[in-house]
Every structure is written in C-alpha cells, then in structure tokens.
Amino acid sequence: MSDIHSAGADKPRIRVRAGSSSGVPAQLVSWSGGDSFVNFAAKIGIGTQNQNSASTYAFNFITRNRMMLEAAYRGSWIVGRAIDIPADDMTTAGIELSGIDGDDLQAMNAAIRDMGLGQQIADSIRWARLFGGAIAVLMIDGADMSTPLNIDAIGPGAFKGLQVFDRTVITPTLGPTDLVQEMGPDFGLPAFYQTFTNGLGIPALKIHHTRALRQVGIKLPYYQSWVEGLWGEAVMERIWDRIVGFDSVTQGVIQLVYKAHLRLMKIKGLRNLIATGGPMMEAVAKQFDFMRQTQTAEGLTLSDADDEFQVFQYAFAGLDDVLVALGDQLCGALEIPRTRMFGTSPGGLDSSGESDLTTYDDGVHKDQEAKLRRPWTVILDVLHRSVLGRKPDPGFGFEFNPLHKPTAKEKADEGNTVTTAVTGAVNANIVSRQTALRELKQSSESTGMWSTITDEEIEAAEDVAPSAEDLMLLAQKSKTPAEGEDPATTEPGEESGGRPGGAARPALRAA
Q1: What SS3 state is found at 214?
Q2: Are strands 192-195 and 170-172 parallel, antiparallel or unpaired?
C-alpha cells in the first residue's frame, strides 16, 4: 500500500511502506511531474531511483550578467543574429500612413526618415532582447521629462526624435508610490525611470512613464518580474546552454582539423635516449628535422630499419548532423526559420523554406501588432503635431508594411485575378459599373493597377454593367511596363472611352 501526502505548497510525495507486498524497499520519493506511469521494481518513471528522476531545473541568472551578454553579442555571430534578426525584421519594412496625402504625407514620411525613428525603435527592441528591457524616450524640446506628457502642448518643431536607454543605464523607481496606479495597460508598471550617472556622458534624468516607450525581452511572471526590477528576461538566458553547445561543437570541429592527420614514429630505445640526453638526443632531433625537410620537398619519409612509421586519419562523419540538430533547436527556440537564421534551406525533398518564411512573416506581423502598434501610435500623434502643427484628423492611422514584398509577377497575377473576378461579377449583373470601378481602385494598393481611377470618373460612369472587353482592355493598359520596355500607347478613340467600331463609353483611366 502507499500513501500520498502533501503539505502546503510542497510537491506530492509517495511513501512506500517497508514490508509491503510489492517488495519495494522503504523509500521516500519526490514526485516532480511527468506522466503517471511508474514501475518501482524496474526503476522506470519519474519518481523512481534512476538518473532521470534526479533531473531538475535551477536558476541561471544570465540576464544580470551584463559583461557576459555583451561579450556574447560582440563575439558570437549566432548570438548577434538571434538578437538582431527579429528587431530588424519588425522595423525594416517601415509603416504606411493612411488618412493623409499630398504634401502632408511627404512631410511626415520625410520626418520619419530623417529622424531615424524606425532605427531607434529597432534599437529598443534589440537591447530589450539582449538585456531584458529598454525604453525609447520621446525627446520634446523644452519639456520637463519628469512630468506627464501633455500631447496638446506640443508645438511645431518640438519633437526631436527618440533616445534609447537599455536597462543597464536606466532603472525604474520602485518605491511604494512609484508604480502606476491608474487602471489601464500600464497599471503596476514603474511610473518613473532614472538614468545612471556613471560619468559616460548620460545626464541625470528622471523620466515619466508616459514619455517612455517600453520594451522587454521575454515577459516574466509576477514574482520573477520583481526579481528583475520589473524588467523582463534576456532572450539568451533561455537558450544559453544551446548557444554554448553550438559554439562548443563548432570550436571542437575546428580543433579536430589540426589532428585529422596524425603520424606516429616508433624508435627503439627512445626512452633511454631521452633519459641520456646529450649528443644521442640531439641526433634524434636532427633525424626528425631531416624527415620534415624531405617530406616538404620530395614527400619522402626516411627512417632507420628498426623504426616504425604509422599514419592515422580522423573521420568527421556525423559531426555535421550534430551541428544541424543544435541549429534546429536554436531556430525553434528563437522562432526564426533556418533559411533566415543560417541562410540555408532546410533539408528534405522539395523543401525550399518558402513555407517557413511565410509562417515567420506572419509571426513578425503578430509581434508588430502586439509590441509596436501602441508605440507607433504615440510617436505619430506627437510627430503629426510637431511637423504639421495640428492634431491628426480622425481618419489618420497606419499599417505595417509586409516584410515580404511581392514581385512584379506576383502583383500582376493578383491584378489579373481581381480583374477577372470583378469582370465576372459585372457580367453576371451582380454589381454595377460604378461598383466595379470602386473595387478595382481599392485593389490598386496591392496590385499596382487601377490607381489612377478618380472619384469623378466613378461618379460619371454608367450605372450599368460594363463589358468584359472594356475591363480586360483597361487591365492591359494599366500594367506597369517591364524594365527596358516602352509604355503601351493608347489607341485612337480609347481616351474617350470609345471602342473600335462601337459606341463611346464614359472615360475610364487606369494606372
């Protein structure tokens, strides 16, 4: 028989009583999880006396070891890519503004580019991944950094960009009254951040949280977050053993190269010659010097008849499989496909890595929405008032540009698909001519076609279904000419909407 005991938060324990019918010796076994299958006689299963039962987990606070993290980032290319790739991919493609056009749009895009806002946001993500946390501070000319951000008080030219501080140069204030008390997404987070005055040129600043765009590496549960000063965990801490293993195997293979061709020379009485020393030992040294010279020049190996010369070669088979397996673990832990991490396609028949990259792109977009939507919204609100001198209109917004930009062929195929679908709907009398033109214009953002259809042309169009010939003809005219190819010329009579041999229709312009 057995009893199951638990006390408070202690793990359940199984006590096997002495003299039980099972014949298992008396023991106290700590039950630490796993499935419920246990065979004490065979010592199988978690909780029995085997090596696997001794396995556990312990804290390894790599996040707090700044010098080690910096050395790894500077010295290991695999660490550098693990940190940089997500940060760069989340920001490289940039954003596309909406609800604004003309000179205002150009001014906003120029300010984003000139201030390097995308790069500063990338740096905040980068250092948060490396150290566990970072903030990007809104630099407002003449503002008191310790006061809440007053968005309505930002005047023309007041916004000067972002300044990034990682957790090694700035610390949150964690007093009883220094946490955000207002209900919302910042509740319970630090209300202020204080820079370290370490003599490296960083001024003493107390920064209110509304002026700081916060990023963390890996979010931690409540108690562990407090252990880290309300920051997160460095990305490297979770995969440190795998990183060390990958670099260790790589270095081991490099060292084996020097020992891949070993040669052994057996000399009779060598031990006595070494012990005697003097001219006899010098003669042995001269013999090997002569052998090296002749091997280099002629490839000859000269030795005494009593000497024995042997060559050993090391086989490297299987080591590449170990590196691939470790690399796959790193890619899985970092959620970065092998194609992106190592620049090589995964193995297997018909495996190009395209599906992995598509999944990765979807993950990048998810992270953008989760981690960058709110920071960019605040930045653009501030930037709009600083550049254009007024608050944004209600329709002002943005979207993240896709990481993968479609090729000209992909856009052309999508455009033809949309045009064919719209044509079919018109011919089936499902939609009117005006609706068709609106659908075609709306598709121009992704297809590159139909962008020059104006609202006036849509309103002036007949509220009847156009012919398939009209739409397909406009589709051909709207295609962007290939590089080095002259743009297609317009046939006489088509500018007014006429068809050769047919009645004129209201004009439709295509990109």
Answers
A1: strand
A2: antiparallel
Closest CA to 374 of 160, 172, 209: 209
Q: Where do runs of H (alpha helix) occur along 298-443?
A: 319-334, 338-341, 354-371, 373-388, 408-427, 433-442
The encoded tokens of residue 188 equal 């319970």
Q: ∠ at Cα 501 (495, 504), nearest 5°?
A: 40
Q: Token pair for residue 104? A: 């205002």
Best CA proximity match to 400, nearest among 378, 442, 370, 355? 370
Enter the tokens of residue 340.
Answer: 């992106």
Q: Which residue, among 447, 358, 355, 450, has the nearest Cα to 408 in the 3D structure?
A: 447
Give, in order, the Cα–Cα distances in Å from 177 to each of 182, 188, 195, 214, 243.
12, 10, 19, 20, 41
Report pTM: 0.70
Type of residue found at 177:
T
Structure tokens at 232: 């997160």
- Check if the beta carbon of residue 472 is closer than 8 Å to that of residue 423: yes
Positions of the chain with pLDDT under 50: 1-32, 349, 482-484, 487-511
Q: What is the pLDDT of residue 381?
A: 95
Q: Is 176 left (phi over 0), alpha (psi -120 to 50) or beta?
A: alpha
The two structure tokens encoding residue 387: 């550049």
The domain limits of the chain are 1-56, 63-238, 261-313, 406-511
Give me the DSSP letters along 474-507.
HHHHHSPPPTT-PPPPPPTTTTTT--TTS-----
The single residue listed with the structure tokens 């020393």 is: 277
Residue pLDDT, tens place only, 107-143? 999 999 999 999 999 999 999 999 999 999 999 998 9
398: phi then psi, degrees, rounded to nearest 5: -160, 160
Instruction: Classify 345 as helix, strand or coil.
Output: coil
Residue that has been written with the tokens 């042997």 in this structure:
310
What type of residue sits at position 357? L
Q: Answer whether 470's CB lies under 8 Å from 505's CB.
A: yes
| pLDDT tens readout for residues 402-434 | 887 777 787 888 888 888 888 888 787 777 888
Helix ranges (DSSP H) in 389-511 = 408-427, 433-442, 444-447, 455-460, 468-478
- Render 169-192 in DSSP notation, one character per residue: TEEE--STT-B--SSSTTTTSBSE
The torsion of the CA quartet 10, 13, 18, 20, rounded to 10 degrees, works out to 150
Q: Which two tokens stand for residue 408?
A: 């000209």
CB distance 88 to 122 below 8 Å: yes
Which helix (H) or strand (E) segment holds residue 88: the answer is: helix 77-89
Give CA torsion, residues 467, 470, 471, 473, to 10 deg: 150
